Amino acid sequence: MALNNQYLILDPNLKRIGTLTVDGATKFSNDSVKIQLADSDTTSTSYDDDVSVGTNDNFNGTINLNAQSKKFDHQGSLDVLQGQPDSDKVVAGNNLAYYDELSGHWYVMYIYSTDNASSAAVKHVTTANFTNLCLYSLAHHYPIATTASASTIQTAFNECFNATGWTLDYQTTNVMTPTITIDGKTKASTLVQTLIQTYNVEIDPYVEIDSQGNITKKVCVITDKLNNDVVYNEAVFGKNMTSIKRTTVSTPVTKLIPYGASGSTIAAVNDGKPYIVDDDANQKYNPGWQAGLYYEAVVTANSINDASGLKAWAQEMLELYNHPRTYYEVAVTPTFNPPLGATIRFKDELIKPVLDASGRVIQRTISFANPYGNTVGFGEYTTVQVATPAWLEGLTSALDDAVSKAKSDASTIVPTILHPDGLDFATGETSKRLILTAHEGNENISAYVDSLGFVWGRTDDNGNVDTSYAKTGYLNNVLAGTTGNIRAQIDGDYITDNPEISINDATWIKFGSFNAYDNDVNRVMQHAEQLSDGRWMTSQADCTYTLRDANLKYVSKMSVTNGGHGTSFGVTIENSTIYIFAPLKTTTGYDLVKIPFTAGKTLDTNGVTHLLSFDHYIRVNYDATNDYFGLTDTSLNYYVLKGSDVRNGVYNVLYQIALTDYGYDIDTQIYQGQLLDFPYVYFQSGNQNDGDTCQMYAINLIHEGECFNYIYDFTDKLGLSGYIEPEGLAFATVNGTKVLMNFLTSTVGVNTIPKTEYFYQVSVTSRTPMTASDGSDDDSNDND
């Protein structure tokens, strides 16, 4: 049976009794179906008038930000002209079923009321108002009373849905056990909204239907985040957005007065004050801040008895309300149809201030009769993070959120032990590497865990703890025969606010510059490496290598036939001869070769030393300090090999990552340079000439955690104007200090001459290591 553009009419027993179509025997019009995961502060319900979503926490003050905005709703209406074959079946008490292609599910909507109207111009019209059958069933069900008890999510939802005919499908990792009380007087529809907020989950109630249109099963999915793995296409005004409405839905709160159980306050743990304030937000949003005025609000957590827990909860709530919360409703073209819960980016450069943001789809309104009337509501529940002017900063927000969540509740961290060398010891092998990583949800937060937070232990064959074995750090080399007894955990007291390395944004300095076409080089520079004696070797797009002195003055040049683009290379000095490690095109692919720098010469395949062969293009890095090679293939997989192995022609990968796992879009971003400084790899992309945002990434190759994704501000931080293209990256020693070098090509206009090559230096800050006295071992999470 056709699925699109129709509604099946079902009787109270869910048997099919008719069909409504756009152009069939019984036509409908003006249909509008709205489904939501959370409130936008603009919605209301009509089928269940005592649903309430308040600010009452009911478990130990560990509520997640924005969870209280969660509210599932699914309802709509349509018009049917009377006098058609199935018109008289569209009555209150019957049901309508429709198919949603995005979810692949059928939904049954209970008709809870109808309106009849007529005019001299048209026949009588019936307007049917309907809501999801699951919500209607819950609105007429009262769960049996239970006493207050610590409840798993399965226990709580099972009690809410008991005897409703709906089967629960748990697709959640939730392990919370808040105290839940059922009084026997509260509708299940009210309770389910409370449970959604309490456990910070989302639901999707649908039905299974046979080929005859008969319902065979009613299912309600309970999941942490619906369609959390879906990142949909970008929405752009004038392309797939036809209109947009931006609404500020709340006034910032800068002073919060929390009350706990029986009216208790936080005064005992807050210097006698029963309130907390946010002075930064107050100065930003409150014109009366100099007179000591605040925007005040009261919140209540009925089940929090401990004053410290109440204060901690209030501080989280203040983070939610200390800024204007914005909601976006967008009219979209029929072809732009993201599923509920998916993440999208959306832009409108005409609206003031400029809209450049990303957020989850929290509401959808669809129409089969008028698909051009479809709308989508975006936001992180009631709050959307706007990232103007550099919306790509939003790519790191998920990591920031994960770190924040892990700091507040270490029990949610998932430790994972990686075995890059396998588990079986071959003859002669004496040790193997074990790598411990920390994940919060789908985010690898390992770069935000101090070395002391990676804790290793050992048990004997009887399961007894070996108290003599104690190690920390994310990399552990274990002896043969011990891997099966090794255990590991993440100590939550050593989660930090800062990654292990970061760019010190205040330290940008121009090191030097030169004309891209001086001394007949005639090509834009791609990469540069500082030699151990302070001189510089640079590469150009036609694989010309140029030697410059410590002040970047031209000395000499050479070239290599079929040497490629010159994107990156490595250098070393052996017996006073400069050698270059780079790719060379062959008849079967590319070789990693060692090139002797020979001024004024053009070398071919016979004038170089061939080390490794590949059937695809490669980019090459060499970390001379640690003697590691880094290689990138065409899919931007990055591989690390020992220098000794490469020199002996041995291809043995020690570590590897996929750069596309860190937000890099290989189809839309312009890849530039890469740099290996083991254990870190840096890479950058972008070109202002082509409108691609310029940014730099850093990843720890061992635990695979992202350290930063840095967005360039060429005007304010580097003092550059015109059109900028970042090229390569390298580390150098300047005045005795190791600094990161960034090579930039600048022009006055797009694709114009002259072009200037700029060398900029910036400091990379390493996080100060914590000491054992900085934390305790109360909060940790185990794995083996």
TrEMBL record:
Domain Tail spike: 145-379
Tree of life domain: Bacteria
InterPro entries according to UniProt: P68_RBP_TagC-like_beta-prop, Tail_dom
Pfam families: Phage_RBD_prop, Prophage_tail
Domain P68 RBP/TagC-like beta-propeller, first and last residues per copy: 553-745
Name of the protein: Phage tail protein
Species lineage: Bacteria, Bacillati, Bacillota, Bacilli, Lactobacillales
